[in-house]
Amino acid sequence: MATLDVTRRVLEGAQWLAPDAIKLAPLLADHGKLVRRPAGAWVHAEGDEDTGLLVVVDGAIDLFCHGLGERHVRVGLVGPGAAVGQSARFGGGPRLVTAAAATPCTTLVVSDRALARIAEQAPEIWRAVATLLYGQLRYALRFGADMLTLPPTQRVAARLSEIAEVTAGLDALPLSQQALGEMTGLTRKTVNAVLRRLQADQVLLCDYRRIEIRDVGRLRDIARLPT
């Protein structure tokens, strides 16, 4: 299990904490709770009343939303340094997504009470939470726009490049073709064809339930090609 020192180092590199990461990282590590979970374990469920932040320290977390009926639709994957959640201070309600361990992982759980205690020493924490909320909103809007406007190759490239940004601490994405299909609204057959082309162009390397991004810059360029 990750130590507090490892947790602090991961937090110091978290973009959503900039420019106050050096000050906030030790406070979050000290006031949060480290939890280790095996692959496949649920972290929290959509609709849970608990508020606060969930920070990935090592491993990766899958994010799901409820679809039609009881179906869970995969909407994201986050890795070390990334965080999800919200605070009651900003009108946050029940959890918006279900989080599950994509791999064995360690998470730092920071409750609303813990955030309030941190704010007594460092009010900058609220700026960091607001930055995180803005990032989550931006991702949701971009996700919707991509699903509505992009053809398959660009849609896959856009999704992979965005996931790569929040999983930079991983050697490869723990992502199957079926999972990527869920996140892009495409069939597994279509995703497989797109991935084969991207692999032939040396943009990425596919293995069983694993995608290694070789050139994230080219992925971004492909996602922005005119339709």
TrEMBL record:
Record-annotated Cyclic nucleotide-binding domain positions: 28-118
Lineage: Bacteria, Pseudomonadati, Pseudomonadota, Alphaproteobacteria, Hyphomicrobiales
Domain HTH crp-type: 150-217
GO cellular component: cytosol
Alphabetized GO MF terms: DNA binding; DNA-binding transcription factor activity
Protein's name according to its UniProt entry: Crp/Fnr family transcriptional regulator
InterPro entries: cNMP-bd_dom, cNMP-bd_dom_sf, Env_Response_Regulators, HTH_CRP, RmlC-like_jellyroll, WH_DNA-bd_sf
A Pfam cross-reference name: cNMP_binding
Keywords, comma-separated and alphabetical: DNA-binding, Transcription, Transcription regulation
